[in-house]
Amino acid sequence: MFNLSGQKSIKGQDVWLVIVSLFLGIGLLLVPSGYSDAGDSQNSIRTVATILEVDNSLVKIIGPVAEGAQQLVIGITRGPFEGEILESTNILIGKKELDKFFKPGDRAFVVLDLIPDQSQIAYANIIDHYRTDKTIFLVLVFFISLILVSGWIGLKAIVSFVFTGIIIVKVLLPAFLWGMHPIVIAFGVVTILTAVIIFLVGGLSSKGFVAFLGSFAGVLTTMLLALLFTHWFQLNGATSPFLESLTYSGFGHLDLVNMFIAGIFIASSGAVMDLAMDIAAAMYEIREKHPCISRGELFRSGLTVGRHAVGTMTTTLLLAYSGGYMGMLLTFIARGIPMENVLNMVYVSSELVHTFVGSFGLVLVAPFTAMAGSLVMVPFAPQEEEISTPVTTQTADLIP
User: Strands 44-55, 121-129: parallel, antiparallel or unpaired by DSSP?
Assistant: First the structure.
């Protein structure tokens, strides 16, 4: 199955991997999760409308926020009621993270509530600005750029990207809601995704196999460290937005602590795979250029590559995580809260554990991958002796 001899993986195998991944992804999309249509109603239709007129006479501006209501005239631009002109109200509660403010010409995502026989519109509920087309455009530009830069590997990366998204939405999140153990299901999903992503990008070769072993060891280490430090820091796991409110909405069985732990190694798994693949690819090229390299030399070479990569990757994780809680840090700084108070807040402690545990697991990927590469890519001693025996005989025959 795996090409461990050091030769490059056959492209046909890559094609089959892409095809299988696509079929699995499509199959998962067709399987109902039980939650995808939970919010749908038979007497409602999702559609798009253009804002034709806006009356802001009931809007009161208070500093940077607005309160009151916008009276809107909208025109339906899609669906069975296309062309209908309706009036609607946009309520403003004074919270910028929840409010949406419209002006003439904007496109809005609208839910139409219908009368029982569905022949007429009872009410038009303005949800938010319509962004689906912009999202599709952004994703397409990203995919096209990836293909232009990376070619066939870029196409495989797109397949792995889409497959990962499908697994998260159709398997991981519904499993959490069903009450399955978050750590067990998350570790299983991450292991499967690691295998799919690495073997799609790296191929069924020694390079891909080594990267998978290093990634698996790194994710496992991160999971164990997350278990240890989450309980040691006495974190409750309720620091994620919307998560606690979900427990009051019929999902009281959710295990917030273990979901927090699962989130730590899920978030760091991408960086772990990245580093493991970098080290495995470098060791593979070294082995290709120097077939006679010893296991110890290859291990040290892989470790050297890992040391340089870890230095930047840990900072990458810090910057990635810090962007998510920048508002919280700004609030603490603006209010002049003492640092000791900040460090003992559950929100800050949760983010610190999230950042440092993820980074610590990343650090250990380098020796794990280097060790796996030295064992997999370099033949064992009996094979080396068999190769060296005829050379010794030929040399002895040349001696007069």
Answer: unpaired
Question: b/e for 158-182, b at 16 or more Cβ within 10 A?
Answer: bbbbbbbebbeebbbebbbbeeeeb
Q: Whole-angstrom Cα distance, residue 202 to residue 225?
A: 28
For residue 148, what are the CA distances in angstroms to 55, 154, 199, 285? 47, 8, 21, 24
Cα–Cα distance, 350 to 355 (Å, whole number) = 9
Report the C-alpha gap between 193 and 365 in whole angstroms.
17
Q: Would you tell me how many other CB atoms lie within 10 Å of the CB of residue 131?
A: 11
CB 122 within 8 A of CB 113: yes
CB 349 within 8 A of CB 235: yes
Task: State how far the Cα of 50 lies from the Cα of 68, in Å rounded to an integer.
Answer: 21
Supply 124's token pair. Answer: 């038009």
Cβ contacts of residue 280 below 8 Å, gap of 6+? 202, 207, 208, 210, 211, 214, 302, 369, 372, 373
Structural domain spans, the chain: 44-131, 179-382
pLDDT tens for each residue of 217-270: 999 999 999 999 999 999 888 777 777 778 787 787 888 899 999 999 998 898
Distance of CA 208 to the CA centre of its chain: 20
Q: Is 147 exposed, middle or buried (0-12, 13-18, 19+ CB in 10 A)?
A: middle
Task: Please report the sign of the dihedral spanned by the C-alpha atoms of residue 154, residue 159, residue 160, residue 162.
Answer: positive
At 97-138, the pLDDT tens digits run 889 999 999 999 999 998 888 788 888 999 999 999 999 999
**Cβ-contact 96, 64 below 8 angstroms:** yes
Tokens read off for 224? 């164990």
Q: Which helix (H) or strand (E) holds 311?
A: helix 295-324
Phi-psi region of 250 (alpha: psi -120 to 50; beta: other; left: phi over 0): left
